[in-house]
# Entry
Amino acid sequence: MPKYVYDFTEGNKDLKDLLGGKGANLAEMTNLGLPVPPGFTITTEACRSYLADGRLPGGLREEADAHLAALEKAMGKRLGAADDPLLVSVRSGAAFSMPGMMDTVLNVGLNDESVHGLAKQAGDERFAWDSYRRLIQMFGKTVLGLDADLFEDAMEEAKRAKGVESDLDLDAADFQRLVDTYKGIVRSQTGHDFPSDPREQMRLAVEAVFDSWNAPRAVLYRRQERIPADLGTAVNIVAMVFGNLGMESGTGVAFTRDPGSGQKGVYGDYLQNAQGEDVVAGIRNTVRLQELESIDAESYRRLLDIMRTLENHYRDLCDIEFTIERGKLWMLQTRVGKRTAGAAFRIAVQLADQGLIDLDEAVTRVTGDQLAQLMFPRFDAEADRRPITTGMNASPGAAVGKAVFSSERAKELAEQGEDVVLVRRETTPDDLVGMIAAQGVLTSRGGKTSHAAVVARGMGKTCVCGAEELEVDGQERRFTAPGGVVVNEGDVISIDGTTGEVHLGEVPVVPSPVVEYFEGAGDRDDELVRAVDRVMTRADSRRRLAVRANADNAEDAARARRFGAQGIGLCRTEHMFLGDRRRLVEDLILAGPGEERQAALDALEPLQRSDFTAIFQAMDGLPVTIRLIDPPLHEFLPDLTALSVRVALAGADAGARDRGLLEAVKRLHEQNPMLGLRGVRLGLVIPGLFAMQVRAIAQAVAERRDAGGDPRAEIMIPLVAAVQELEGVREEAEGILREVGVEALIGTMIEVPRAALTAGQIAEAAEFFSFGTNDLTQMAWGFSRDDVEAAFFSRYLDLGIFGVSPFETIDRDGVGRLMRIAVEEGRAARPGIKLGICGEHGGDPESVRFCHEIGLDYVSCSPFRVPVARLEAGRAALEGAGPEHAEAGA
Ligand code: PEP
Ligand code: MG
# Structure
């Protein structure tokens, strides 16, 4: 039988998958000799078993009882005993941190008897009754699923009745009355009494924590953060220590560095006479951690010591939750802390400079997604900026949108395509939907460690929190800023997560300094720019994959080159058939065979040639893969309905051209155009079309060569499924190249499953393969992308059929398998064959890693993603299992 329960002395930080992050790190701190209250962890395996079977696995109860007995022995108290009760917290803790998403119950073990024992032992009646009402409140919400407002309202009523504002002004008798009220709420809502048996409380709390894994907000959070749905959570049972034992007690959170900027120092919040979740929930306003020095110098000094120990031990920014119980410091949690994208780069390089890690490790400490975030625009510093207030700069970025005051409204407007900023007094885990929908989040209460701040940072979303001057009225859907400025729902505001400023109206945005750096104009004195430069330089020196760009014009090509692209992996020629040239394409379609068609092609050729010449010039000396026309021709014709109406309205006066066009649109209409007459099929069916394109490429190469340039053309045939298709086109193209007297590689896309499965044959006629994973995914799954994404992908994600859309990240098992086969058989048939990818996946971090693993030579993505792909290729080379295939030149 598996071992389901681990004492804190038995675990360590590497057992996250089994013990969850919290359990693993509590064990690690215990073993470092830090002051952690004793306790034990029930594993994620037990949770998975519980969720699968709907009951706790056999043997778990006995094992947990034995650990509880050991805990009671160590503490010299029994759980819930009437005279001197041991109380425990029951805390969730999954392998990935999910702030505020899952549930915790404190003070388990209290009942009508043990509350007196607690009061006696602590010498504090008020504390005991406060702890008891907290248990009923948390238990009621978490375990019994009651509406939290029922308890909140009773609390507000108690304060109102007494004429006080803060819970600190309530006394023992008030809390005792609240306990009665709370018990009444439980009874009336559930039909049962609040359970007084401590062991039953504990068991129910454990089951509730397990169940909270599947709470809607946790499901949503996991999807957002791409955390797999089947991991389950661990549960930690920890001896309670109390931060609510008077003003010499308290609870707080600390970071070893600023999670916003990466600066070393003392960052955090502290709340006197408070318990557990009060700080993160933003119930009362906290003080800055530095102020703890004047409140309790000894604990402060000890905390700073521990923070140093932890940072050196974990070699990274740590975040910490602690409690002080009557002057004694206890560590309740630590983990490698979430941070903003900018802080991630700065911290990685700072740690390398300190010698705690080397530069290779620094590269692995940052991600492509973080780099992408740093490339977003920010507010123009030169703009007229007169903030209506300034809050805390909790998560950087520039967000502009209409103010909204509820998550439902945020979602509603976002679905209508509006940009919104979610404004709340404070956020709770139930606001996740609105936070995802919004451009940014603004709160009037809570510090940098409040729910809003932590979650926004995790999502990379702009957040200003604790803007205390704002009076937020959610009911009336408005807030009031100093000077009487009233902002109603729908008014546009701009929030700056880097400075904390809040503006009325739209503040203009400017490019990020990181983009300017990639453009070659960045400020090298800027710490962030320097950190990005050092990480990127190292990643480039380590990566094996080359990175190219998808670009269809000289401007994009030039930008891609500045961003580090080593060529063009996909130039889609159909984009050159749009705009003014559309008429020429219509001519081509309307033309009869023979001379008429040739005339239409002749009109297009010089235009194509000049496009290619400009691109070759921008990418001089680097490979440029030009794909011959791919989409069905009717895409270049007017819409059937619009044209029919025009012709019908004109009646007998309808022009010959319109009638001809209508005729052509009807003739070319297809039920499933994605599977119809497109790609190589067009080239084979419409004589002269591909030849015109190849001639334009060849002449552009000749022109650049004659001008002293170094053009390197690669001609790519789309949608090939059989080598015979390719052979025909290839022969014609070779003839034209010979005629013009230039050279170019000729290859194909692998985007039809049959091409992947017959790659050995196709390689006989192809000097390169480029995986078109957009089509390959459509055809491997039988999904028409435009139809399925909106129709049912969210349901598929809910059902866990896939964790991420296969159009975003390569589906390793299916599409990936096709790619592996093609790589293997292609290389076997033609050892030097060049292999790349040009589908959207080429810029997706996880997919870049897959391409590294299967031994591609390059990835190609949109110009803006090129730096992301460079970084991920470097990380893959440093971390990955390495390519499965022998290296070949890129
Ligand atoms: C592909 O299918 O992956 C591809 C790059 O081609 P397109 O997206 O133009 O169909
Ligand atoms: Mg395609």
